[in-house]
Write a structure and sequence with these properties.
- It is built from 20 helices and 12 strands.
- It has helices spanning about 20-25, 25-35, 55-65, 75-85, 95-105, 110-115, 115-130, 140-155, 160-185, 190-195, 200-225, 230-235, 250-260, 265-280, 280-295, 310-320, 355, 375-380, 400-415, 455, and strands spanning about 40-45, 50-55, 70-75, 135-140, 330, 335-340, 340-345, 350, 420, 430-435, 435-440, 445-450.
- Helix 8 packs antiparallel against helix 14 (about 265-280).
- The protein is globular, with a radius of gyration of 22 Å.
- The model has no long low-confidence stretch (mean pLDDT about 90).
- Bound molecules: protoporphyrin IX containing FE (HEM).
- Protoporphyrin IX containing FE binds near residues 325 and 397.
- The site of protoporphyrin IX containing FE has 24 residues, from helix 13, helix 14 and helix 19.
Length: about 450
């Protein structure tokens, strides 16, 4: 194995380096450069910061798993998110992150999250009550509202719709501002980044609103001291080995992180699933056949999950084609050898599931929607780290079981009673904005379907 200084670099601009290409149609650019330059590509931001795009599953495995301790999260996530996520799990690093992860982990044990299945289904049925057969709906907005209500309920056990609605409003404003901010290449430049902007005031107000609501919920909960079975109780009750607990600020940061990380990704996974199903009637028919056989018209429960195997395969395949977290970023905290290259300290590393998931070296006919890839026999044969919708290693998504359970239950509940048809004439493009969103939002017409029960089938 040879150790070379730097991987190949595509042509760059005088001042920006490659920053502008990555803020424009970043996904196409990333695809092009890896096709042209291979599995390691060297990029520059403002001729100052070095970034490597890493596109081989073995190298991704090294970064995320075997050499994980030599990396921190990429600073761009902190820049964008820490104003409202504080030091939450998504952005923290080092010993602080390790302690917080250990404290939060029990909240995601299967016994705990199993109890959320009912909430997931009943909130979905509540949404379906709004549906009028034949009407057109913005399916992304529906999925976003649904998953946000579910995560607020499972996290805070708040019965107050108005409180959940206020959390939603503040978070939506914050996401909107973050996206606006992330679209401008100038935000990479520290001097410009730190100048006061009108959006800062809107952001500060939204953060203050969010904090006030969450602090009130924490105060009430600390007073009553009971375990309500929700994630917040777990965070408040969690104790370190030395008996110490999280401060209010730490609980607040983790709670906001979980609300944010816990809804948008799952909503996008489902939105893309509807989009794909609408274009593949034979796969939709196979899904309906499973739902009718397993559920026969009744609401799904936790106990049905093992038998909703095809439903799960559909979700997994949709996340292969449209990974809700399209990119994962790290920064080397010391020199580290990855594959054939020595990465100097501070090098940024970008791993793009949206590329690895469509690489013909690991996937036959990669642009084809084929849930069979995830049948138990086929899944066992998949190349390691060629499928990484939840990342991997110590920083793997803490909510992955929660998310899979939620996506399968929501898909089963809705698909049982409705088919969703794409409004003709829409051109939908996936856009990577931290999460992989459709642009513009996907409009779909809802048609009622009557589940075939055993009785009606005979
Ligand atoms: C389909 C849905 C989801 C997808 C695709 C997804 C994807 C990811 C990915 C790729 C990461 C790792 C990022 C990195 O390594 O830099 C991550 C981290 C994380 N996710 Fe998820 N996620 C989903 C749902 C959820 C849910 C439901 C929750 C919580 C209720 C959640 C909470 C988190 C948290 C807290 C982290 C940070 C973990 C850490 O660094 O210790 N996610 N997620």
């Amino acid at each position: 194995m040879t150790t070379v200084n730097r991987p190949p670099m595509p042509p760059k601009e005088f001042i920006f380096g490659h920053a502008r290409q990555l803020r424009g149609d970043s996904m196409n650019y990333e695809r092009e450069i890896t096709r042209t330059y291979g599995d390691f590509v060297h990029l520059k931001f403002f001729n100052r910061y070095d970034a490597y795009v890493i596109n081989h599953p073995d190298d991704a495995h090294q970064v995320l798993v075997t050499e994980a301790r030599k990396f921190n999260k990429a600073p761009i996530y902190k820049l964008m998110l820490s104003t409202f996520l504080g030091d939450g799990l998504l952005v923290s690093d080092g010993d602080f992150w390790r302690r917080q992860r250990k404290l939060a982990q029990p909240a995601f044990h299967s016994r705990r999250i199993d109890s959320y299945a009912e909430t997931m289904v009943s909130f979905t049925e509540r949404l379906l009550n709004e549906y009028q057969p034949g009407e057109t709906r913005d399916i992304n907005a529906d999925m976003m509202r649904l998953t946000l209500n579910i995560v607020s309920k499972t996290l805070f056990d708040t019965e107050l719709e108005s409180e959940a609605a206020r959390i939603n409003t503040a978070l939506t404003t914050l996401l909107h501002i973050t996206t606006e901010w992330a679209r401008s290449p100038l935000t990479m430049l520290p001097i410009i980044r730190d100048l006061p902007k009108p959006m800062d005031f809107r952001r500060d107000k939204a953060v203050a609103d969010l904090d006030a609501i969450i602090q009130r919920i924490i105060d009430e909960r600390r007073k009553s001291k009971d375990d309500r079975g929700d994630l917040l109780s777990m965070l408040l009750l969690a104790q370190d080995e030395d008996g110490s607990q999280m401060t209010d600020k730490q609980v607040r940061d983790e709670a906001v992180t979980l609300v944010l990380a816990g809804h948008e990704t799952t909503a996008n996974a489902l939105t893309w699933t509807w989009y794909l199903l609408a274009q593949h009637p034979e796969i939709e028919a196979a899904l309906h056949a499973e739902l009718d056989e397993v559920l026969a018209g009744r609401s799904p429960t936790l106990a049905d999950l093992p038998r909703l195997q095809y439903t799960e395969m559909v979700v997994k395949e949709a996340m292969r084609m449209y990974p809700p977290a399209p990119s994962v970023g790290r920064q080397a905290i010391e020199d580290v050898q990855i594959g054939d290259y020595l990465l100097p300290k501070d090098t940024l590393v970008m791993i793009h599931p949206h590329l690895i998931h469509r690489d013909p070296r690991w996937w036959d006919d990669p642009d084809r929607f084929m849930p069979e890839r995830f049948s138990p026999e086929n899944e066992a044969k998949l190349r390691k780290y060629a499928y990484l919708p939840f990342g991997g290693g110590p920083r793997i998504c803490i909510g992955n079981s929660f998310a899979m359970m939620e996506a399968v239950l929501l898909l089963a509940t809705i698909a049982q009673h409705y088919t969703l048809e794409l409004v003709p004439g829409q051109t939908i493009t996936p856009v990577a904005e931290i999460t992989l969103r459709p642009h513009p939002n996907i409009m779909m017409t809802v048609h009622e379907r009557v589940p075939e029960t055993t009785a009606s089938a005979h």
